């Protein structure tokens, strides 16, 4: 019911260690060194005032500690706090934003608990003091009693704002186990994805890639924005409801098409013996096709031990490039056999139905150990729940699902197949490939069920339950 916005925080100056540049990225870049724990409230209007306040504080800190202090222009912050005009809502659920400072005027939007707003003015209205506020696309009036301001707002903002990092101007960035350039590389991060920042240590930001992988990245190679919940307009609420209805309808239609494809396949199978009786000479064709299938299966079985090639899992850079290039997920050919040996039409319809059904739950919460698609699930609880709707048993954990599905190459993954991610040789996260180089997964408590690039971290394995 809430929407989010952000303030981009970027710093100046190239990273001074050429050796470290070669270690951390594929190419040298100029980036941001951000004091993440000192961010100001973002995504508010006017954003420029808050950005300037942050920049002033950051420049002062860097001038005092950096060897390049002479390169940093020192600008003293203004006397007033950046939070003087910032308010954080404090309500049990939500409060209406009105067109005028009274409860009989038109409702122009809603603001929920812990949303950020800019106070444009203070007026005397019905029953006392009201604020005219701007939050997101909503501008209107709310009773002052529903907001906290000043130092208290600053303290709350640091708790409810979510810093998000994106790799800046380089193809990949090393995620390290510890905040040190000598620490082991856990994975390579993609510039196409955003990651939750959960802290900092020295020159490193602590990143939650998903709830199953946490590590450190060098701060000069990331851009950080701070995301806050904001008010939603009446129109935005209507659009959100319409989008939810659209996704539900798409799922219903896709499932209906799948059922129709199954009925048609069953009808053709039932009619096949009659056709064979009328044309005995044609009876050899099914035998040939069937024999071919038998010959293909042992070959695919003998290739099953390929997962034991642990070095492939650890070759994160190679896998990352494959995922983003022609050999990424979806780059191969779809299987010709459907669930339980169905036709290619059944397989295609089932894949579409599985993905459409999964998308209905976008935005629902991540809950560790959870299996509810609406009230909260973890990564494997989400994929298990989606497949269970179609009568497919996957197992509960990501490792169970990786073992029970038929292994395919990452490059041949098709919509509805599962991609797995590992730390070292230990699989700890699963996502569903939805096509177009994207996955849907239950990621973190901050993001919930979301869509990410398939190479937001390095996929180590893919399986299918659909052919």
TrEMBL record:
Q: Which domain of life is it from?
A: Bacteria
Stored Gene3D superfamilies: endopeptidase domain like (from Nostoc punctiforme), SH3 Domains
Q: What GO molecular function annotations does the UniProt record carry, in alphabetical order? A: cysteine-type peptidase activity
Q: Which PROSITE patterns match?
A: NLPC_P60, SH3B
Polar residues compositional bias: what residue ranges?
290-300
Question: Which is an annotated Pfam family here?
Answer: NLPC_P60
Q: GO:BP terms for this protein?
A: proteolysis
**Keywords tagged on the record:** Hydrolase, Protease, Thiol protease
SH3b domain residues: 84-151
Give every NlpC/P60 domain span: 348-467
Q: Where is this region: Disordered?
A: 260-346
Q: Where is the composition biased (Low complexity)?
A: 267-289, 301-326
Q: Return the Gly residues bias intervals.
A: 327-343
Q: Belongs to which family?
A: Belongs to the peptidase C40 family.
- Protein's name according to its UniProt entry: NlpC/P60 family protein
Which organism is the protein's source?
Clostridium symbiosum
């Amino acid at each position: 019911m809430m929407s989010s916005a952000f303030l981009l925080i970027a710093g100046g100056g190239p990273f001074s260690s050429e050796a470290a540049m070669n270690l951390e990225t594929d190419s040298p870049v100029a980036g941001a060194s951000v004091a993440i724990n000192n961010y100001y409230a973002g995504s508010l209007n006017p954003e420029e005032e808050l950005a300037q306040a942050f920049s002033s504080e950051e420049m002062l800190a860097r001038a005092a500690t950096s060897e390049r202090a002479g390169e940093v222009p020192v600008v003293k912050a203004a006397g007033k706090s950046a939070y003087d005009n910032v308010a954080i809502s404090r309500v049990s659920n939500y409060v209406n934003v009105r067109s005028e400072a009274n409860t009989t005027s038109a409702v122009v939007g809603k603001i929920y608990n812990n949303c950020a707003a800019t106070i444009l003015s203070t007026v005397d209205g019905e029953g006392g003091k009201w604020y005219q506020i701007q939050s997101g696309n909503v501008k209107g009036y709310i009773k002052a009693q529903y907001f906290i301001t000043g130092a208290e707002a600053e303290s709350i903002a640091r708790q409810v704002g979510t810093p998000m990092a994106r790799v800046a101007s380089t193809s990949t960035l090393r995620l390290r186990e510890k905040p040190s350039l000598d620490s082991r590389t856990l994975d390579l991060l993609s510039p196409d994805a955003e990651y939750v920042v959960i802290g900092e240590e020295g020159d490193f930001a602590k990143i939650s890639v998903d709830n199953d992988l946490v590590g450190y990245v060098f701060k000069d190679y990331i851009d950080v924005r701070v995301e806050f919940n904001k008010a939603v307009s009446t129109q935005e609420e209507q659009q959100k409801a319409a989008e939810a209805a659209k996704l539900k309808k798409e799922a219903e239609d896709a499932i209906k098409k799948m059922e129709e494809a199954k009925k048609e396949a069953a009808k053709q199978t039932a009619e096949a013996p009659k056709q064979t009786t009328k044309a005995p000479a044609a009876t050899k064709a099914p035998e040939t096709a069937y024999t071919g299938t038998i010959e293909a299966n042992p070959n695919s079985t003998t290739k099953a031990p390929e997962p034991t090639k642990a070095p492939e899992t650890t070759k994160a850079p190679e896998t990352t490039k494959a995922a983003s290039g022609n050999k990424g997920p979806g780059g191969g050919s779809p299987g010709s056999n459907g669930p339980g040996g169905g036709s290619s039409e059944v397989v295609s319809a089932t894949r579409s139905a599985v993905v459409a059904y999964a998308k209905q739950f976008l935005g629902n919460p991540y809950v560790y150990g959870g299996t509810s698609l609406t009230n909260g699930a973890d990564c494997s609880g989400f994929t298990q729940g989606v497949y269970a709707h179609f009568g497919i048993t996957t197992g509960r954990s990501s490792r169970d699902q990786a073992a029970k599905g038929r292994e395919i190459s990452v490059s041949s993954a098709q919509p509805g197949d599962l991609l797995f991610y590992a730390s070292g040789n230990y699989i700890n996260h699963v996502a569903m490939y939805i096509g177009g180089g994207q996955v849907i997964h239950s990621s973190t408590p901050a993001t919930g069920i979301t869509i990410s690039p398939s190479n937001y971290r390095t996929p180590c394995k893919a399986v299918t339950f659909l052919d």
